[in-house]
Amino acid sequence: MSINRKEIEELADLAKLKLSKTQASEVGVAMNDIKQMIDLMNEADVTGIEPMFHPMDAVQRLRSDQVTDQSHQRALLSLSAHADNEHYLVPKVIE
Amino acid sequence: MTIKAGWEMVVGLEIHVRLNTQSKLFSGMRASYGAEPNTQVSFLDAALPGTLPVVNQKAVEYAIRFGLSIDAVIAPLTVFSRKNYFYPDLPKGYQISQMDYPIVGPGRIEIEVDGGSKVIDITRAHLEEDAGKSIHDKYDRYSAIDLNRAGTPLIEVVSEPQMSSAKEAVAYMRAIYTRVTHLGICDGNLQEGSFRCDANVSVRRVGDQNLGTRAEIKNLNSFRFIEKAINFEAKRQIKLVESGGLVVQETRLYDAEKNETRSMRSKENANDYRYFPDPDLLPIVVTAEMIAAQKARLPEFPEAKKHRYIQSLGLKEAEAHTIAHDLALSQYFESAQEQTKAKADLNAKFLLGEMTALLNAEGVDISQSRIDAHAYAGVLEALAESHISRKIAKQVIETMWHSGQSAAEVIESQGLAQISDVSALIALVDQVLANNPDQVASYRDGNDKMFNFFVGQIMKQTKGQANPVQTKTLLEEKLK
Amino acid sequence: MIQLSIREMAQLLRDKQLSIPELCSIYFDRARAFNQQTNALLKINCDIDPAELLQAEEALLDESKLLAGIPLVHKDLFCTQGMVTTCGSRMLENFVPPYDATVVSNLKDQGMITVAKANMDEFAMGSSNEHSAFGSVQNPWDLTRVPGGSSGGSAAAVAARMVPVATATDTGGSIRQPTALCGVTGIKPSYGRVSRYGMVAFASSLDQGGVMARTADDCGIVLSAMCGHDHKDSTSHPDAAWQWNLPTLKNLKGIKVGVVIDWIDGLNDEGVKQSTIKAIDTLRQQGAEIIDVALPHAHLAVSAYYVIAPAECSSNLSRFDGVRYGHRSIDTADLETLYVNSRSEGFGEEVKRRIMVGTWALSSGYYDAYYLKAQKIRRLIAEDFNKVFEQVDVLAAPVSPEVAFKQEEKADGVSMYQADVFTIPASLAGLPCLSMPIQSVHGLPVGLQLIGRYFDERSILNVAHQFQQVTEWHKAMPEAYK
Q1: What is the ipTM of this complex?
Q2: What's the pTM value of the predicted model, to 2 decimals?
Q3: What is the reported pLDDT for C224?
Q4: Structural domain total, chain C
Q5: How many Å lie between the alpha carbon of C377 and the closest alpha carbon of chain A?
């Protein structure tokens, strides 16, 4: 089963990307190629195999609860394309 | 309010408890409430590229402690996952939360409603980071984003849909609230959003086994509102279904001013969150030692405390209940008790009587009392030693409140100590009897009421400082 | 001068036969001169940063700091405080990080001098360096050919000796493949060896910083300085600190080198095949025992990788939303358009494609069939390696199935993805690997890949070092840049 146009549109919506018609069909073709490549995985029998989410066989280190960081308000807001002197600004959100 | 006949409601709650850690869940930035906008934001909190999360140990410990308090299974291995969605107050474009391997497994808690009790099953509780805040009233055209709250640690406690009334939901919320505040893992500040909940509400006709379609009411942070919101929502759904409509699965917002819920436009799209284990973090192994360490820190919960107050301290049921269910009050009560010979019963009665009246008059609760437990113990001590009467004690605490003096200082400086000196009292009694021969004659004629007249006269002359017990004894002797 | 090793340069500086500014000016000049043809570098510093010079002069007094005064470039996904870090993307065209990546600060501490930031495929996605928003990089050996990717700028810069050292990163082959195609030496250490803090993430469970230089010894010296445990990175290994020393033995006696015969037999490019066989033969002549081994699930690695890497990338790149930093569209009628326009304008086609693939692989209904399955295959592959390393110390394998290909030859994604067929398996398992130049084919470099046990960088560096003691390929340079 290949990835259809509607799915591509839904995925673009989830990923917050805008694809022109040509781009969407190019992406569609590419994704179906990739899908074919990925579908090779079906030949492997993975019953009873635990997924390996991480190559490192270690456990999470826990940080002691201490304040070690300072405010970077000015440095941070100056990186933004749209901020006043205390907030980041975005087009009005209606909740 | 009762639900319309023939219908029942089913409620499940997701409670968000903000853990009162010093630093955030994944960064070393201060996590306190109320700072100037965006002044508690690290590079990580603003999701700058290349920054990486490291887990706060205390948050993990607090989650374990909570799990133990609801008799839950603590997962030996727990994993953080990413919940992906775009929102301006979610800097990374995903929230680090937990999906398949939450730290706290199934547990349970008992609630009391209308004198009866009921056990509510808790599905799970997991650790996650809070989002920032969007401020909508600063500009007409823009929403302003404050990321101070982004990354503060929460546990989300998910109940089974087992509550069948708004009252039960409130009782459940209170029970969890009592737990987390007693555990010392949450400051319990409702106004600041330290404890808030989402309610999943559905309705069905009585006898129907299937659950109806539910609506989720977001961000309820008051016990009163949650009750109203759930009742409104159930009513709305019943009306909708009865008029042939269908309940839509959606997120709704409760408007306290209008007492109604409305659909949230911004969360309109059913999102596909694409959860997957966060590859920036490794699995957390929860050892038996970590669990044991938290078990050792479990405090006494109100039910046990109440029992102890009745059994060992001899309090009455009602007083024990009131004190045991208020953490600050019980701490005050116990602290004072340790510092005085006074009976616990006197402590409880005075605390819930005169002391509470004073606090109410001043409009504060016990945690803000200007008389600390030590100073209060001084008042109890004076009462126990019969230096003052309860009536005088009331006056003493009022003075202490404003002057900041100790009980002994107030009693001393205002000369409020009871007169217990027998010779002084005898002189007083003799004087009062001599000055009121008619009344003495009347008493001797059988008018018993006159006895209280003499007591009153003595108290009047001593401004209430005569030891009442001794006074009565002496009067009785003299009038024989 | 440009053929000197780090140890030789360090000696000259300490003997005061050369000053740090003198050494650096040679490379600053070459960097500026050759960048017009190669486009290997993005931002070249005007001169030595005075603070870095001060630190370098101080480090020079410490005998153990061999890197004092040695110039380098950083791949442009390492955050450099006060210096634009683009990640090869329009999205970060003007992004000036307020912090240094741990790798950058570790190397600064050693007294290294930053010459420039190196060009790269956008967000490290690509195998040809044609996906940079700031123009493709040309291979110094043949300017009509690609340098490989995604660390193509780093590889081309070292190949043309615009610098003696370049940092780089590897997710599925991004150090090894360009290293091979440009005829230099490069090491991707074990996952967890080098801190990822301040490295703009592509795929978190695969990304690993490393280094490219002329020789294995140079790589070992730089890696020793880069690595170490970092409390800011949860995936940094507690025992990550490590020190490379020149081996005392002069041969490979007692070393068992495994060879996946299927991989070599399957090579279509006869030149690459013969070079590889010959290089393995050299190792045998040096005393190594060559053992045939098999990795039965390795052929599924590319499939698993193209689920895992895009999935992680789709989530990692969500933070680029135009709100707090990076490109923000001027057309922002509402929140949705702010997001969609900023991201669509800021990201290039390959990045968008991978975000789409990753979004799809994680979406409900596909997660189990793709993402979970890929992670299970990852375990099968890792177990294959474990078995192999019970028999051998090091694996020798091809890096790229072919030499540098012509620009624009591989427009279509999937054929490009096959370029990583030999590098991806070790990436999935988090193993250390290295690529070093062996005999060239028609004037174009070929690389040999050495894969080691987890955390055994020493063995692969040792084998490469011994090989480089008896061969001259690592000294070869493109004629135009001598």
Answers
A1: 0.96
A2: 0.87
A3: 98
A4: 1
A5: 7
